[in-house]
Amino acid sequence: MKKNMRKILLSFLLITCFTRGYGEEISVEQLNALKEKGMLSQEDFDILIADLSGTLENEQLYKLNVNGILIDNKFKVLIKGDTLYFPMLRFLDLLGFFNLKQTQDETIASLNEGLTVVLNKKNSTITLPNDKELSRKISREKEYIFKENDEYFLRSDIFKDIFLSYLSDEDRTSTIRMNLAFNTPEEASILFKLRQEDIKKELEKNEIIYVNERKMFELGNARVQLYQNFDKLAGDDGYKKDWEGSLEYQGAFLYGNLTTSYDFKEKQVGDIEIEYEDIIQDHNLKVGAYEAGDDSREFGFSLRKDRGYYELGRKFIISENVPIGSKVELLYMGYPIEVKEAENGRVTFDNNLIRSDRSYQLKIYAPNGDVETRYINTAQNYNQQNKGEIEYDILFREDYNSKKYRWDAKAYYGLTNELTLGLGNKRTPEKVRDEYKFLDEGRMELTYSNQIYNSAYPITLRVGNDRTFTSGENNNNEKYSDRYKYDGLAQININNWMLKTEIEEYGKFYREKSKNRYEIEYSGFNNFTFGYEYEVNELRSGKKEDENKYKIYYDKGLTSNLLLSSEVKISDRNDEEYRMDFFYTGFTNFNVNWKNSWKKSISNYETELEMYSNNFYGMIDYSFSVKYSEQLKERAVFSFTIDYDNFLKITGRAGEKGSRNLKAGVDRVVDLKNIKANVDNIDTSRVKVISFIDGNDNNIYDEGETRVDNVEVKIGNQVSITNEIGETIFHGVPNNILMNLQPTIRKPSYSLGNNVIKVKGIAASTIEAYIPVKPMLTLSGSVELDKVLKLSPSDIQTLYNDILITVKDARGNEIELTMPDETGHFMVSGIFPDKYFLEIKYMGDKFNLPELKESLELVYIDNSTPKIVLNVTNKKFSLSKFLKDKI
């Protein structure tokens, strides 16, 4: 066993030495020596030589300037050695003014002046039907195009031959400049300028986010449910009546968010839990007293990161906190594949289509009508951390049966960006010979991840050891000192291939002596994924158990509204499973899913047709399903929900063999600080909005700053207007969703500036959100002429016409150009309190007046206007500032 463990550690160290971190220390002579000894294959040798010569690939983001206009600030370019490869489909999408035709096998772009470019997706080639000479030239080229994910990257020289008249990458740290080789229509120039303005606005935005302050106590929200039930079981003649009722509460308490409930019928308090969101490095802390039976409770707490999913064995489960009462759709490849209602503010999906290294979306329909989309990526990262980062996963809980405490605590720390140390300790009460004793376990693991040969081949290596520290024996006279395990894992991804090996060695406590698993997966053929897995278990009795598993996945969007997902799993242990599902979203008011599965044979066939709708006509949710299988024959289930105005709720269900259920009653949520407020959901916050004049432009409400009334504010679908003291309040704003706060400044000469304001509730309490209103000032000025000039009226007018005044902001951007009028007065309006620069030039030739440059800081003061006086002599300009004079 120790010999096997040494092999695992040796493999770990050897592969580490050949990764990017150490690659520069290996010479060509050393590689030749390793190759001659048979330790390197020719393929590995070639890759390492490429690494030393610097010809492997990396990627970088650039700003893209086309025809002198910035159209993208995140243009992804691949670099191989000194050669750039540009993303063709992204480039065409950015141009956006031509006819683009997409088929399964080809992308055809018809540009201006008869230029047509055809991309053949099957064999990754480019042709130009109208330019046969260039097509022949391209056909003779090698390695000019390659595919990564769904993008095709063209080598820069070929890219230029097709699309450009000019290409410059001289400033490789920031910008790539291009000029198109063909004329663009007028609408293209407009499109480019619009994109440039959008990028500029995006870069200049200042995002302000307000959340709930942690409070010792504040009244929150309560939900009251009282229902009358009518149940009819299959085969019964009549209905049985019963009732149920509950009270749920959520509010700020002990600087966290308290949730609890009370069952009126059972006269019992439910779980009591206080959650502290983001208490340390994106970790959430939950402390509570939980039901344990017989009116007893278990005290406990947990501290962990919420990734949006977790692994259960070898399955992936998506689980997210959402507003209580929400309905959530799970989307894969943009198609809804399942819908569920949140339970106690959390939704969980356990679906066959949830697999590793895939992207999913959760579309959350909150009770108040707001819709949010969240993105979940099920990457297997093996708890890896960046250097200096740490992740905790701690569960501490009282054990009702043993009257002792149990815990499971893990921590992962990034020693470097590539190497993570994991430590764990688990204590569980175990009954041994009628007495409870603690079973203490520990785990240590090292996880290393990098990219081999400085390329896009990610590798992960992990070694670990589980051990029990408890002395003595269990009820079967097995020694706890023999309860240990060594394990190792190696995984590498090479383009579309994934190869993984797992090795486990067990102590004498277990019936297994060792377990090895080898897996290979390929996903580079259209929309197919092929997998093979071999597992062999060696038992302590000397017997071996092995199994071969084969799998095929095929997921394809047949149309924009129809997704096909199929799966084949075959094992040599007579275990077979086939599945073919269709998901259709083309109907206006509902979605349709048709699921089909077979196990072992076609005779074990099951099919299900499901239709569901969310918020039909603003008040009805319904679902309908029909199932058929050889075992169950036929079964039809119909259910519906009617929720009217956050008060009356009716649900019904018609099941198989005549079973029925009807439930009607009151489901009402109230804000305990304002019971008249319309609140749809218990998991919501109040938002108190305060608008003020931000005279010093610091986006913070300072004492003495003037409040602003008559500001229209919108959050979700709620709209309110600030009162005479500049305040308004919103009720029922969903928690756990970043909501836009959209003000409309009704008063003239005021603006929001470049601020974007958002709110996010993390507890059922009050968020104070401030709107910093920027006063738009008018800078007025006049020209004062030195009497010694002795100018005639016509000369004065000529002088005024020859003075040019330029106003620039602190970054040097030109704000406005102006000139004195016939009376010598000038004005610059629509500017904010800030620092500015004035440049004053004399454009005539009668006087020798050098250019004047002056800084100017404008500050907002009630009932005042900034003024300047431009003094003119025969030798110079000078400026007198009266920025605080009363009007």
Supply the helix-strand structural class.
mainly beta
Specify the helix fraction band: 10-25%
Mean pLDDT value: 82
User: Which descriptor suits the 3D outline?
Assistant: globular
Largest sheet: 24 strands, antiparallel, barrel
Secondary structure tally: strands: 61
How many DSSP helices? 9
Distance between the termini: 91 Å
- Unreliable parts: 1-25, 50-56
Strand content: over 45%
| CA-based gyration radius | 35 Å
Question: How would you briefly describe this protein structure?
Answer:
This protein has 887 residues and is mainly beta. 10% of the residues lie in helices and 57% in strands. It starts with a helix and ends in a 5-residue tail after the last strand.
Features:
887 residues; single chain; 9 helices; disordered N terminus; 24-stranded antiparallel β-barrel; mainly beta
Structural features, described:
The chain is mainly β. α3 packs antiparallel against α4.
Topology:
Elements: H1 2-17, H2 20-23, H3 28-36, H4 42-53, E1 57-66, E2 69-80, E3 83-87, H5 88-95, E4 99-102, E5 106-110, E6 116-120, E7 125-127, H6 132-139, E8 145-148, E9 151-155, H7 156-163, E10 164-168, E11 175-180, H8 186-204, E12 206-211, E13 217-232, E14 240-253, E15 256-263, E16 268-269, E17 272-280, E18 283-293, E19 296-305, E20 309-312, E21 315-321, E22 327-332, E23 335-341, E24 346-349, E25 359-365, E26 371-377, E27 390-399, E28 404-414, E29 419-432, E30 435-451, E31 458-468, E32 484-494, E33 497-506, E34 512-525, E35 528-539, E36 544-557, E37 562-571, E38 575-584, E39 591-599, E40 601-616, E41 620-629, E42 633-644, E43 648-654, E44 660-671, E45 674-679, E46 684-693, E47 711-715, E48 718-721, E49 727-734, E50 738-745, E51 750-751, E52 755-760, E53 766-775, E54 777-785, H9 793-801, E55 803-809, E56 814-818, E57 825-831, E58 835-842, E59 852-857, E60 867-872, E61 877-882
Parallel strand pairs: 1-11, 12-52, 46-53, 54-60
Antiparallel strand pairs: 1-2, 2-3, 3-9, 4-5, 5-6, 6-7, 8-9, 10-11, 13-14, 13-44, 14-15, 15-16, 15-17, 17-18, 18-19, 19-27, 20-21, 21-24, 22-23, 22-25, 25-26, 27-28, 28-29, 29-30, 30-31, 31-32, 32-33, 33-34, 34-35, 35-36, 36-37, 37-38, 38-39, 39-40, 40-41, 41-42, 42-43, 43-44, 44-45, 46-49, ...
Helix pairs in contact: 3-4
